[in-house]
Structure formats: C-alpha cells, structure tokens
Amino acid sequence: MRGIQSYSAYIPYRRLERKDVAAFFGGASGKGQRAVASFDEDTTTMGFEAARLALRSVGGAEPDALWFSTAEPAYLEKSNASTIHAALRLDASATALDLSGSVRSGAGALVAALRSTDQVLVTVAGLRGGLPTSSDESDGGDGAAAILVGDDSTAPVIAEYLGGASETEEFVDRWRTPGAATTRRWEERFGETVYVPLAERAYNAALKVCELNPDQVDITVVTGNNARGVRAASNRLGAKALADNLASAVGNTGAAQFAVTLASVLDKAGPGQTIAVVALADGADALVFRTTDAISSFSPAKPVDEQIARHAAVPYGKFLSWRSMVEVEPPNRPTPSRVSSSAAARSTEWKFGFVGSKDRTTGIVHMPPQRVGISGGKTDDMEPVAEAETLATIATYTVDRLIYSESPPVIFAVLDFDGGGRFPCQLTDCDVDDIKVGTRVEMTFRRLFTADGIHNYFWKARPMGPKESV
Amino acid sequence: VSSNGIKDRVAIVGMSCTPFREHFDLGRDDLLINAADEVLKSVGVTRQDIDAYWLGMASSGSSGIVLASALKLDGKPVTRVENYCATGSEALRQASYAVASGAYDIAMAIGCDKFKDTGFSGTNANLPPNDGTARTLTAAAMYSMILPAYSKKYGVDEDELRLAVAKIAEKNHYNGARNSLAQFRKETSAEDICKMAAVAGRLSVFDCAGVADGAAAAIVVRSEDAQRYTDKPLYIKGMSVVAGDGSGLVDPEYDFTTFPEVVAAAEDAYQQAGVDDPRSQVAMAEVHDCFTPTELVLMEDLRFAERGTAWKEVLAGTYRLDGGLPVNTDGGLKSFGHPVGASGLRMHYECWLQLRGEAPENRSIQNDRKLGVVHNLGGYPGEMVSFVSVVGTEKG
Q1: Which of A86, A299, B235, B268 is least surrounded by CB atoms within 10 angstroms?
Q2: In a mutagenesis test of the A interface, which of B116, B124, B131, B245 is the best target, namely the one with the most A β-carbons within 10 Å?
C-alpha cells in the first residue's frame, strides 16, 4: 500500500483583515482575513516549518527525498530544498530537489511522489500577493504544507492513494516573468472556459481508474488560482461534499493551496473516508485517497484549525512594507553585511540545524557549539545536542528600538532551554505586550536578513500558544 | 586573577584631553596631534624624546602607523592596541608595564576615536566575515536587561529602580555641565529622563553615553624619574584586565545583576594596590557608565555599595560631587561623551586633575583621600572585558 504517511500545514501567525485595504484606499470592503508571512519568513522557511511538523507527527522519519515546490522561490539558480534539507538535518543521501516555478509544480510534486517508489517528503509553499488593492493581494494567502508519501513498509499509511489522472493544456491565464514583483492575468472568464472541461476530464478519469462513482467520494477538494474556474468546476463535478478551501481565513496559498486544504480535511477525517483532490493550474491534477485505520492513531502536531485560530493582526501599512510595496525609513544604523558562504558552510549544523554541543565532562550545553567548554572543560570533549525541538523559557528580555531591522523594533530575550543551555535570541511572531519573564517559547527557522542577494537563515524563538504550552 | 602588579613603580607625569565633541571640523589625525602636543608640552619633552608609543584606537584605524604618520615619528616603536571600550586603558597599561620592565624610560599612551564621520547613529562594531548567526543587538538593549533582572532579584519596584538609574544620568549631567571638555553640558532631571521615550527596554536616549570624537594622552616614566618632570606625579598603584569567557551568555546561572569580569579585575587591582575597603579609602572613581544601569551594577561590583543596595545609595546621593564617594566627577561617558579609544585615558585624566587639586573649583571633590579608581569596560553583560586601576598621589 502506498499513500500519505504524515502531513502538516503551516499557517503563519499574522493576518491581514481584508477590510483594512478598503479602509486605506477606499472601494468595496473585502471580507475575512488572509494569512501573512512575517517579514522574516519566505517560502523556504514556511516550507521547513510544515515539513518539521509533518515529521514530528510521526516521531521522525528519514525520507529518501525532499521535494520542494513553490511559485515564489527565495532563490533561483541555488536550491531552496537544500536549505530545508539542512534545517531538517536529513541525511546527506536524501535527495533534495526544487520542483518550482509554476503554481502547478506543487500538485505536480505530489503526483510524482505518489508514482515513485521512494519515501518522499513533498513540501509546498506559497507567498502570495499583488499590487495594493488587487484581488491577488486580498485573496492570496501565505502558507505551506508537507506530505510524507511512502509505502507501508516504511511507516503506516494513513491515507492510501487509490489512483489519479492529469490533464495538461497550454494557455495563458496567469503569468509572471522572472524578476517581476507581481503576477498578471488574462480576463478570468477565458480561463474559466478552459478549466471546467479540464477538471471534469481529470476528475472523471481518476474516478474511473479507482472504479468509483462521484457519490462514493466523501469529500472533494477543488483548488486553483482562477477563482471563477474553481467555482464553476466545483459545481460541475457532482461532488457530494466540497472541502472548505480556507479562502476566508487563510487565502489562496498558490502552489500550497491544495495541500493546505487537504491537511485541513485529513485533520478531521476518520478511517475509511474517500477524499478526492482536484488542483487546477495550467491543467488539472485529480488524486483520490482513502483513509485507513492508521489515521485513528495519527495525531497532527499542529492541526490547521489550531493554527488558524492562533493569530494576530498585521496593520495594512506594515503588510505593505513587509511586501516591499512601500519603503519605510529604516533605523539610522548600518545594514548588515552578507553572510560568509564558507563560514556558513562550516557551521551548517548550528546555523541550519540549531545543534549545540554538550560537554561530556561537565554536562554543560553550549550554544553555539564550542570546542572548549566553560568551567575548565577539555578540548574537543563535546557531543552534539539538537535543540531545535526543545522548548525554552524567557529568563530576561528587552526591546531594541535602535538596531537595524526590516521591521523594528527587535524583541530580544535570553532563553533558558529545558534540559540545560542558554541562548540569547531574537523573538518573532509576538508583540511587546505578549512577552514576560517566564514566557515559554519554541524555536522557529527564519530569514534574518538578505544582503548582496544572500539570504541569512537562522533561528528565532516564538511564544507558544496557550494550547501548545500545556 | 594572580598578578604581581607594578605598585609605585611607574608614574604618570603628564596628561591631556581634547574636548569630546562631534568634531565635524577635525579629523582623526588632528585629534591625535592636538592631544599629543598638549601632553608633550605639559611635560616639557619632544616627540622624539618619547621612547615608545601605544595607541588605543577601537575602530578609526589600524596599526601603529596611524600615530607614527600623524606625528611623523622617526623610527619609534608604535603599537596600536584594541580591547573594545577598554581600549584607552589598555594603551596606558601597555605603556606602564613597558616602562616598569625597564625596556623604556619614557612612554606615551594615547587614545583616540573618530566616530562622527560614519553618518550613522551610535557606535557600530564591524564584524569580521561570519556565518550570520552572531547576536545583533545594540549595547543599549543588552544593558537594558539589567533592570528587570535587578528588580526581580532584590525586590525593587521597577519604577523606583528606573528613577534611581535616571538619577545617575542626572548626577553625571550635573558634573558634565561643570566641565568645559564635556560633550553634553546641560543639566537634566531624573524625572524628565523618565518621561522620555524608551529606545531599549526602559532606557531612553538620556540613559546612554554620548558618541563623540576625541583623544586623550598620558606620559609615563619610572617613579624615581618622575620628579624630573613634575612635582605632582600620579602613581600607578594597581592595574588589572580581565577578558570574560562569554559564559554569561551560555550559563543559565548568570542573572544580569553583576559583571563577574569587573569583580575579578577589581579584586586584582585592589590587592595590588593594597586597598581593603574601597568605600572608605578611595577619594573618587571614574567608572564606565556607558548606560545608567551599568553604573548601578558597577557600584556593587567595585564594592562601593553592598549587594542590592546601590540603588539606595544612588538615591541618597552617595556618589554625587558632595557625597561620600564621588563617581564620574567629570560627567562620565554619559555627559563627557565616548570616543571609545580615548575614554579610558579620559577617566585617568579626571583622576589626574582631581587628586592633584587641579579640577575646577565648581566640581572639586571635598575629601582629602589620596586614591582614585578607574573602571573601564568593553562588551556586554555576560561577555565583557573589564579594566580596573588604582592611582594615587603618594607612594606607599
């Protein structure tokens, strides 16, 4: 049996109220919220967060491959999957590949993983926006999802892959040339006329492969970037029940949308449920799953509903500055220098994996890792100690309104880790009033800054939600 | 720390200090020339009479060539030293030890930094190429973490403690207002400082040292030669430097209410100088008030106050000009300004003036004790280099 062994979505902490756009610019007021990646997040960091949660839910796994898909890659030329691979501390033999560029590459990665024989961690992410007042800005959302695909010989399969079908067609509905800040689109009604038959053909073909009638499918996920096309196709598939695609709480996460929605469906699914996914992007990909008994004992690390519920607003002005749609005055401090590539390569375990060292003689944990310990340790008498999944408590903290930041002020805390070890660290996903001495935090992988086109990835801490800290 | 020290073996025979300012009209070399010429003139020697030079410079240039080319020194040993914000004191320590060793008869320590050509606010460290994981935080923010920690440890109300550290700034501004060389010469009240916007934790801009350009210098000789140059030398009683191992940032036991490097350096310097009870033996002290909470903690680390009581001593006025132990009588970093490489020498310059009775009348200390203490640090709570010296007007 082959199928889904684990999964998780990652929804960033911030939300933009759609009505705030109209409050600023005038015009018709939108409804609901969209998820907003923090200024220190990109598709790579969000993809990592989803991937780590998927692995955490199964108590760890050593996949043969990590495939990362997004239409908003942090790097071209250089791999982004390798960054996620390093942060997950996967074995060097695990193949990290970027299947990126088009929105379809997200669903495509899952299709390819299901057809493969490897255990593959499919990771998809979207960071969506558009010009101020555009529907892409308002209806888009940021987020990621990861799906661990494999045979039941490597881990229990919680949703068996029954079969699928794809349709491909060349037409221009949405496009963005490399380097362009925003996506452009053709009149939506043209795309609608193309997508509806594509969806019907792929869906019917998939059901035929699985020898199923539409009424035997318990819930159908239909996603895509042509809103009219998605609506029309949804009505034409004869689906018994359509999944909520989270448009009003998260927004359309592009390459990740099908997977974020599927994660939300799986969170609520019991055994024996048939779930179909139809992803529309320059074609149609239809996939059919049936949950197994194993899903009863599967406990998602952070269910989608919980992540949707735990959020805070981002003011529209700040959103625009985070997205480089307006430039705001930075603190009068030097901007950081680019990271040294060779220095970063020497400290991959620390920088990407957040691995410290523990003195074998004194037991003292050192972050960053040291060759010589405090308290009279010997040289090279240390063992690595992974701290990325360890929780910590704020010993003391401060707010720095002077230091350079892409989004001042910087909230900074001295963290004492459960099981020993101290690390002074920037906080994120919080406001000044959220922080107290004693606040519990977890580590999160972020982009600290970008200099000379090199992204500086490292770790920050974020406060735990009320449920998480129990 | 175990050291033999050089008690009474070396004497300062001349000192100089330029005004600390935003010297947009003076370059680094101008400041060096002005400070060097002033001290040479006061001692009555020429540049070529000085056997060796130590230049304290944190970030305005590298190598002894900076000084040698500014002063056109001919074939002289010139060494640039750098030890964060303790750089100026480090230059004096090197020069003093070199003279004490007998290698040279007369040496100059000169410190200088020129910050105001960067166009940025504050002082900004240039990190070597690195992996991008180093902490980036202003010094103000690092030191601001003292207040909540101190409050918690000693059960002091946060608002009362905030007022107490603002009183430190008030005192230092009062003193600086009486100092023509100081950068900020306006008095200000603790209450007004408390009302200002916070920039780091609860600290306002007025809790932070001024960033200035400036230079200061000292000429040192063996004590037995001192009377050839002045009838009022200032003797080196003890000098200590401790560079921390950074354990405060690793060790959860560290609580941000003390600087272990300062405690160690002070004990070493006191032991060299034969000081048992600094509170009663010291006439005045110049300490590193880079931020107001720093001076608070230093009062305890230097044993000028019992643990957990410095805030009360501050409120009681102990460290004011007319208090039991005047501290930062020249305005301190707070009011005098902080051209990093010069500051340690500037602190010794104030001891030079006060202990020898040459401070202006309106900021003269009122006791006749003979010892001064200089404390100069660089770095942050948990990770710092600390310098402490004891100087005095009498041998023995």
Answers
A1: A299
A2: B131
Pairing label, strands A454-463, A440-451: antiparallel
In angstroms, rounded to a whole number, what is the distance separating the alpha carbons of residues B274 and A43? 64
| Residue of chain A with shortest Cα separation from B118 | A334
Taking an 8 Å cut-off on Cβ atoms, the answer to whether A403 and B124 are in contact is no
Q: Residues of A near B (CB-CB distance < 8 A)?
A: 331-334, 336-337, 339-340, 343-344, 346-347, 350-351, 364-368, 374-375, 395-404, 410, 412, 414, 416, 420-424, 437, 448, 456-458
Is A396–B256 a contact, with Cβ atoms under 8 angstroms apart?
Answer: yes
| Residue of B122, B247, B250 with shortest CB distance to A333 | B122
Asked if the Cβ–Cβ distance from B256 to A414 is below 8 Å, we say yes
Residues of A in contact with B134 (CB under 8 A): none
CB distance B133–A420 less than 8 Å? Answer: no
User: DSSP letters of B148-189?
Assistant: HHHHHHHT--HHHHHHHHHHHHHHHHHHHTT-TT-S------
Is residue B65 predicted with pLDDT exceeding 80?
yes
Record the tokens describing residue B37, joined without a space: 């010429």
Q: Which helix (H) or strand (E) holds A111?
A: helix A104-115
Specify the 3-state DSSP secondary structure of B269: helix
Cross-chain residue pair A336–B254, CB shorter than 8 Å: no
Task: Please name the residues in contact with A178: beta carbons below 8 A apart, sequence gap of 6 or more.
Answer: A76
Scanning the structure block, which residue is given the tokens 């310990």? A373
Q: Helix H segments across B223-339?
A: 260-273, 278-281, 292-301, 310-316, 332-336
pLDDT of residue A468: 61
What is the pLDDT, as a whole number, of residue A470? Answer: 40
The helix (run of H) or strand (run of E) holding residue A53 is helix A43-57
Residue written as tokens 């985070």? A322
Q: Nearest-CA residue of chain A relative to B245?
A: A374
- Tokens 């005004």 -> residue: B19
Q: What's the pLDDT tens digit per position in B268-289?
A: 999 999 999 999 999 999 999 9
ipTM, two decimals, is 0.90
- The count of other CB atoms within 10 Å of the CB of residue A361 is 12
Task: Name the residue facing A398 among B129, B201, B382 (closest C-beta).
Answer: B201
> What is the CA A199 to chain-centroid distance, rounded?
26
Q: Residue range A76-99: average pLDDT?
A: 98
Integer-rounded Cα Rg, in Å, for chain B is 19
